[in-house]
Design a protein that fits this description.
The protein is an all-alpha fold and about 110 residues long. The chain contains four helices and no strands. It is globular, with a radius of gyration of 16 Å.
Length: about 110
């Protein structure tokens, strides 16, 4: 049995992956329901093509970027880049909350 020691950034990586997937799901729901639009023109292009193309591109690009960042800095113990992780978590948290608020306001007929 191998002894596994959790790296300090492992939790941040998992948090970003979960937030990215939440953003993906909520964005598709919001746009398909007509409650909003994708603000990123590149992602908007893929969403116009199909939700599946959007999902595949978002997962491929974001998840791979996170894994590359994780392997490049985190596994090598370069803890000076912690601010980047906090920034990304903040941005994704804000995006997910914004999407939830938008859906809630539309569902209740407020906007």
């Amino acid at each position: 049995m191998t002894d596994y020691k959790k790296h300090p950034y492992e939790g941040m990586l998992k948090t970003l992956v979960i937030l990215n997937l939440l953003d993906l799901f909520i964005t598709i729901v919001v746009v398909e329901a007509g409650f909003g639009e994708e603000m990123n023109p590149i992602m908007g292009y893929f969403l116009e093509e199909s939700p599946i193309a959007f999902a595949l591109f978002k997962i491929f690009v974001m998840q791979h970027a996170l894994l590359l960042e994780y392997n490049k800095y985190v596994k090598k113990g370069k803890l000076a880049h912690r601010g980047v992780w906090y920034f990304l978590i903040s941005i994704y948290t804000f995006t997910v909350l914004w999407n939830i608020i938008t859906v809630t306001l539309h569902a209740t007929g407020t906007i």
